[in-house]
Please model this.
Amino acid sequence: MQTTRILQVDAFTDDPLSGNAAGVVPDADGLSDDQMGAIAAEMAVSETAFLRSSEAADRRLRYFTPTQEVDLCGHATIATFAHLHDEGLEPGTTTVETNAGVLEIDLEADGTVWMTQETPRVRQVDVDYGRVADALGVDREALEGSSADLPLSVASTGLPFLIVPITYLSDVGTADPDLAAVESLTDEVDATGVYLFTFDTLEGESTLHGRMFAPGAGVPEDPVTGTASGAVGAYLDHVGAFDDEFPEELRLEQGHYVDRPGLVRVRVDSSVQVGGRAVTALDGSLVVPEDEADEILEA
Model:
């Protein structure tokens, strides 16, 4: 019976069982799509990354939620390369092929992983604030209070997210989303999920605090989201959110309201980079289900 090595690596944290848990399969070349989907469903974390060989880059990554494949996942990428660092990958620059394109990865000596994301795209959307407030379970006035300089927009650096600013940290913390309404909203604006954020933070050195909901992708709430962090960094640059010079590095808090606190670092210059550390919490093996394509049905 075939087994495969599988890890749970907690990204955007130095502490196990915090941050965002990713499944990582270090040797996935022999696995079919159905097998990868089944493994991701069994792991039951927001995304599992499958490391494969590539003809277009140094490595290939594919990402599956418990219900579907997605083109890109920031925290699972950080988790994978943090694992490779633990296994002896030298600091420096490498490349990874994803369904969203070939991306550049910079690995620092202390294990920090920086992921250069896709070219930013930001578009303002015309969505009623009452509908957004009802979908997220927040106060409409708290949303409209941030609307003058921070319009509702879909931003992407690989995956599109509806970016929703709100006034206070308490508004973020008490959000009670209607997941069906969130899914309907994201389908309408062609986004993977909704990123709700405020500049009101827990730590003084942090830039903002966010929560991300993506029920349409099988992720009701993601603890700490790399792709959405890159998207919100691009959004803040696009709308000119800072009166002075754009910060050299953004620090994004997330996960505290689901007891998985983490911190994402974002740099916005000629490109958008998302960075963080990760720690392995589980290292074991999993029995791989039979490939359905190999099964022979007899009449």
Remarks:
- The chain has a mean pLDDT of 95.
- Helices lie at 33-43, 74-86, 129-136, 140-144, 169-173, 179-189, 226-238.
- The longest strand covers residues 278-287.
- Residues 145 and 248 are 27 Å apart (CA to CA).
